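[Discussion] Sanity-checking designs against the backbone

I'm trying to build intuition for which residues belong where. Below is a structure token string of 223 positions. I'd appreciate it if someone posts a full sequence so I can compare it with mine line by line.
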């Protein structure tokens, strides 16, 4: 049941990001294709039998999302939906805690360890609420700092996740390694969900800089 719910959450990330970035079909299709490829490899047990391929998959994810950013940075963006994406990280953290209870990831990766990402999720809800009544919040240095911290939080969590996985570079979680990211469907967490969250932060930062510089004309909900 948790696997089905997680697949639904992944699809939700993909679809909301599609509407948030101006309905760019190329971005949608590339995300779906990547999800299908990573998901298939995880389902077939390829990453479990050869964890090195998982590292290659992460490198591919970085390259893919660098390409996606080039395709979407000039489109009209939906601010509310980009913030909704960040709020979904609260649900992601609940999944991570459930995986910890199932002994699939170390405690270090949860909000009871070194993962403070749930705070970014809750604070995004606050920003969304404030934005509905005070549009100028986008110009605030607090909003910019929040986005940088959100990216940093994701990088820290992913780094802990990789370094606690049963791969040649493992440094943490030897008593309870992170095996979840090597199996289906949780391999989609670092390859689909996390990159979308990072891209959402980057796009919000692009808008934030444009607002502060006065180079982007805005309407309610869009830039």
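Best answer:
Here's mine. Compare freely.
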């Amino acid at each position: 049941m948790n696997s089905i719910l997680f697949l639904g959450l992944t699809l939700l990330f993909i679809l909301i990001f599609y509407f948030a970035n101006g309905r760019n079909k190329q971005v949608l299709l590339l995300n779906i294709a990547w999800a299908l490829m990573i998901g298939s490899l995880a389902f077939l047990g390829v990453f479990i039998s050869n964890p090195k391929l998982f590292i290659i998959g992460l490198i591919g994810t970085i390259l893919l999302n660098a390409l996606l950013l080039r395709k979407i940075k000039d489109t009209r963006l939906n601010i509310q939906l980009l913030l909704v994406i960040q709020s979904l990280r609260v649900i992601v953290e609940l999944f991570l805690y459930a995986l910890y209870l199932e002994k699939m990831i170390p405690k270090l990766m949860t909000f009871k360890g070194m993962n403070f990402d749930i705070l970014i999720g809750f604070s995004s809800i606050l920003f969304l609420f404030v934005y509905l009544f005070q549009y100028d919040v986008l110009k605030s240095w607090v909003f910019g700092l929040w986005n940088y911290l959100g990216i940093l939080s994701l990088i820290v969590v992913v780094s802990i996740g990789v370094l606690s996985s049963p791969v040649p570079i493992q440094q943490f979680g030897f008593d309870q390694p992170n095996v979840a990211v090597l199996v289906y469907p949780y391999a989609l967490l670092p390859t689909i969900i996390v990159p979308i969250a990072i891209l959402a932060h980057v796009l919000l930062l692009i808008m934030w800089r444009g607002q502060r510089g006065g180079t982007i004309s805005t309407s309610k909900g869009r830039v």
